[in-house]
């Protein structure tokens, strides 16, 4: 059952009040996160939240509470929030206070949610470990429970959002997913991380990394809460976001609940892509994958092999396309209108529009951006250069189309190997990440770090919905392991249903 709905019942019955609920959340965070987990970059205080708390309590008192009334929610620090710092975990924006709310923030507030803070992340959402940010690394809450007792990464780039839910600081949080930035930290931290179909949630106010890939999404303890949050956030926003699409759901939560009432696992066909059997895959995750397949078949579900042949090209193609878009999107951060300005800039500006201005741009951006961001800007600029665009960027776009076509073929039933009946697949099951959470001081080289996204990137390239669900604890290190489920574009409600089924069927008690 929804944990959010359980808390709302307590609020309605007056067993707890909104002030105590918010205060308890802030006390937990101040006791642990700032000193240990480093989940938050900006944390609100009771004084700042006083008006919102009073308003929510009044609504409970007169019976007009909204769907998230008084519920503390955390927001990744790349969503603009009016009057609250939005830094993207970068020195470039460390003092930026927006004058407007992102659409996601507005929709949450409209339903009574209390945004208690902005979560830590990889700088400008560029990373797979939440260790590249200006404000330090996010520590996985499972570090203390691990056998080695060493600090582990929370995953990236939405590591803070995943960690604060895993640590029970909040019931739910918001992240963004460009190549796996919700699902991978969800797997590492042992929570549900849902990336919906591209275009269903508005990107207005989400500071861009790669606009054609960036997708807002949610973290929660269970699928019911994820469904509730998606029902609130999936709204067309053509006034602000040209990529926003008309919602295919009257209510995604209602559709999900109808699936739960009227369907069972016997009504679904699950596809297993052999293309995800990569050499980097940890044996424990492979064993978990096999166990879940056995559990599904034992419960009456059908499992078939499927082929996604262009998956092996997804990783290099993604890093060409994403960095190309980042090169363009981050050009606006020059320290002139806003953003970090180097101490040497004042004198250089006096030199006029010649070498002085160029040097000022260089100094502002050199000081303002971290190493990973500069690396990706340079890679993207190279891919878009006159001598490279046809050889790199254009070919990567063609591969993206082929990857999308692979998914369409599987969901239509035209890409099932060794099966003349060409069975239509409802849901694909894969690992979320090749390994579990690794140590913060592992010092992985860039290639090995990028490989962490090898399982999650294809669904971003195709714009299809996908979710990571926690299922068991590693016997080697007592840390969470999860699997990823993927469905046809705009079949997000079916994906929620399938995820709930698999969790109930195969998850250890820690995650039920």
Low-confidence stretches: none
SSE arrangement, N to C: HHEHEHEHEHEEHHEHEHHHHHEHHEEH
The CATH class name of the largest domain reads Alpha Beta
Question: Quick one: biggest sheet?
Answer: 11 strands, mixed
SS summary, helix count: 17
CATH topology heading of the largest domain: Amidase signature (AS) enzymes
Taken as a percent bin, the fraction of beta residues is 5-15%
> How many discrete structural domains?
2
Which CATH-level-2 architecture of the largest domain? Alpha-Beta Complex
What does this structure look like?
- The chain is an alpha/beta fold and 512 residues long.
- The chain has two domains: 3-263 and 439-511, Amidase signature (AS) domain (Amidase signature (AS) enzymes, Alpha-Beta Complex); 341-368, no CATH class.
- The protein is built from 17 helices and eleven strands.
- It has helices at residues 3-12, 18-37, 46-62, 103-110, 159-166, 183-189, 223-233, 252-262, 283-298, 314-329, 345-349, 355-368, 371-384, 389-412, 446-451, 457-462, 492-506; strands spanning 40-43, 72-76, 114-119, 172-177, 192-195, 215-220, 269-273, 302-306, 427-431, 466-473, 480-487.
- The protein has an eleven-stranded mixed β-sheet with strand order 1-3-2-4-6-5-10-11-9-7-8, sandwiched between helices.
- Strand 7, helix 9 and strand 8 (302-306) form a beta-alpha-beta unit.
- The mean pLDDT is 94.
């Amino acid at each position: 059952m929804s944990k959010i709905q359980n808390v709302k019942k307590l609020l309605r019955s007056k067993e707890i009040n909104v002030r105590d609920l918010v205060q308890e959340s802030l006390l937990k965070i101040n006791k642990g996160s700032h000193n240990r987990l480093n989940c938050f970059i900006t944390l609100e205080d009771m004084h700042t939240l006083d008006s919102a708390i009073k308003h929510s309590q009044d609504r409970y008192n007169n019976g007009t509470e909204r769907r998230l009334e008084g519920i503390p929610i955390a927001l990744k620090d790349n969503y603009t929030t009016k009057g609250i710092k939005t830094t993207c975990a970068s020195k470039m924006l460390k003092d930026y206070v927006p004058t407007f709310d992102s659409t996601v923030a507005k929709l949450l507030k409209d339903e009574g949610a209390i945004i208690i803070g902005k979560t830590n992340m990889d700088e400008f959402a560029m990373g797979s470990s939440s260790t590249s940010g200006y404000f330090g690394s996010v520590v996985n809450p499972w570090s203390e429970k691990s056998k080695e007792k060493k600090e582990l990464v929370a995953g990236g780039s939405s590591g803070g959002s995943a960690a604060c839910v895993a640590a029970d600081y909040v019931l739910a949080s918001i992240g963004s997913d460009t190549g796996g930035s919700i699902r991978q930290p969800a797997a590492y931290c042992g929570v549900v991380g849902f990336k919906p179909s591209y275009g269903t949630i508005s990107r207005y106010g989400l500071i861009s990394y790669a606009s054609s890939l960036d997708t807002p999404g949610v973290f929660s303890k269970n699928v019911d809460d994820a469904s509730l949050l998606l029902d609130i956030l999936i709204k067309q926003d053509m006034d602000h976001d040209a990529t926003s699409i008309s919602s295919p759901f009257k209510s995604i939560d209602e559709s999900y609940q109808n699936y739960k009432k009227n369907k069972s696992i016997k009504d679904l066909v699950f596809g297993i892509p052999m293309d995800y059997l990569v050499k980097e895959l940890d044996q424990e995750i492979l064993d978990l994958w096999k166990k879940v397949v056995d559990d599904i078949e034992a419960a009456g579900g059908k499992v078939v092999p499927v082929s996604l042949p262009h998956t092996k090209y997804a990783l290099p193609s993604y890093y060409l396309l994403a960095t190309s878009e980042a090169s363009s999107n981050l050009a606006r951060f020059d320290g002139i209108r806003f953003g970090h300005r180097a101490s040497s800039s004042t004198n250089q500006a006096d030199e006029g529009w010649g070498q002085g201005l160029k040097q000022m741009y260089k100094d502002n951006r050199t000081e303002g951006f971290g190493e990973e961001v500069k690396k990706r800007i340079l890679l993207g600029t190279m891919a878009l250069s006159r001598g490279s665009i046809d050889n790199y960027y254009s070919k990567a776009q063609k591969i993206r189309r082929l990857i999308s076509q692979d998914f369409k073929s599987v969901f239509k039933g035209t890409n099932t190997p060794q099966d003349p009946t060409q069975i239509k697949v409802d849901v694909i099951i894969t690992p979320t990440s090749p390994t579990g959470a690794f140590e913060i001081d592992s010092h992985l080289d860039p290639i090995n770090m990028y490989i962490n996204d090898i399982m999650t990137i294809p669904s971003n390239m195709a714009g299809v919905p996908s979710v990571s669900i926690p299922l068991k604890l590693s016997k080697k290190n007592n840390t969470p392991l999860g699997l990823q489920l993927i469905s046809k574009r705009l079949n997000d409600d079916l994906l929620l249903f399938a995820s709930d089924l698999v969790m109930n069927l195969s998850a250890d008690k820690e995650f039920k």
